[in-house]
Amino acid sequence: MIEHGTPDVTPATVDVRPDNGSLLKVTAVRAGYGDSTVLEGVSCHVSAGEFVALIGRNGVGKSTLMKAVTGRLPVRSGAVTWKGVNLERWSSHRRVRNGMRWVDEDRGVFPNLTVGENLAVAGKPLPRSLAYSVDAIMDNFPKLREKSAQRAASLSGGEQRMLALARAIAARPELLMLDEFSEGLQPSIVQELIATLREANRDGLGVLMVEQNVRLAVKYAERAYVMDKGQIVHEGTAQALREDEALLQRYLVV
Amino acid sequence: MDIILNVTVSIAITLLMAAGLYIVYGLMNVINMAHGELLTIGAYTVVILTASGAPFWVGVVAGAAAAGVAGLCVEALVIRRLYSVGGLSTLLATWGVAIVIQQLLRIVFGPSAQFVSAPVNGTSNVLGTSYSTYRLLFLGAAILVLAALTVAFTRTSWGLTIRATMDGADKAEAVGINSRRVYMATFIVGSAVAGLTGALIAPLASVTPLMGTQYVVQAFLVVMVGGVGSLYAPLAGAVLIGGLSSLMTTFLDATTAQVIVLAAVVVAIYFRPNGLVGTADLR
After folding, report:
1. Does A96 touch chain B (CB under 8 A)?
2. What is the pTM assigned to this prediction?
């Protein structure tokens, strides 16, 4: 059963514009580990081609939300829907095969595989229409070609993130979620990777950037959510957030 | 020359035995205590089929298949339910499976030893020494199987998917790999290799319900001593354990030889706790 939901939470209205419906919709999600609840009813959404930032201090539940959305942590109540379909029983790999991608804080590259193998293995499970050529990726990222025979573990942090990003974008997902993408990277490398990301975004890739680095996130995003203590405490355009010094102070300055 | 051949065959047996265990442990971190019983199933399959007139090599293939099917059942019924718990519970659960299989075999075939005659008799001349033809065939088959596994693991897309999953099921899922299916396929392959080993060993050993136990101990030692993370790890382990025990039994009595081998194992693990070659942590 597929229904296109609207960007707001009201389920009664149906958005008929297929390219403007929410790709990902998180509705009142509660989740946690063991006895503790980390997410206390989080709602947010990302539409096709949108660049959204999810910001908040360390430990407010951003990574937990990523885990719930990607199918690695059960949702206790509420729902995660993808193009209108409830993902409740979907394994992580099935979400990926249906157009969702993520790059974790740990970058998610396979340390014992070579750079070339890292690129190749990620293309295999894709449907044929999305198959990509490893060679073409390396044309875009000469640095990866240079190191294609090296184990991914031998790459620097920035190179590993480049590998993870190149691999994710090559799969032409509809939504790419990045967890603490800028952490520990030199500003020049961040700039380079962001440029790649924005180019893909212009070509229609939806982006959800989960960041502690607020300045970076609100600089490029269209819309932003601020998270605190397992809840979304603010939602608005990134521009409004950039100018709301009081809000930034309240929730984001450590 | 005789000694060299004996040592080589012993290394091949040990390595073949350890290969299945290594695949499963290296990938899934599952210590399969029922691995030896999968070997026994392979051996009994040969016993049944050759007794009913089938050619030996048909029995070998059927032995691998039977152990593969048994492995499928063990994975689906027991191990799959314990991935989230891991470690000790899988060890205990598969140990239970091992005992069940042993007792079932005992009920069906009785406790006494059965024998399988080799498909070829006599000896062949190897560089001036005469040596059992079946043992030479065994050596060839072992090398063939190990080479096939190595190629499959390092050169095929199937192997690439397995190696990726070995690096982290979470990461594999994140690129769209169905890690559960990889686990299952890997477990079946590991079990089939055990069954194949059992079938090939059958003419060289007495087939009893408990035969798996004696081989599985050596296989565990190989995996421990060699370590995980490299394809050469089990080879190093097998050379040390299979080679040394065969060499020692040539000159000493079996008990003393076993003591020396175990002492070597202790020394190796003391100085190289992650294995002679292995890179990953052994838990």
Report:
1. yes
2. 0.84
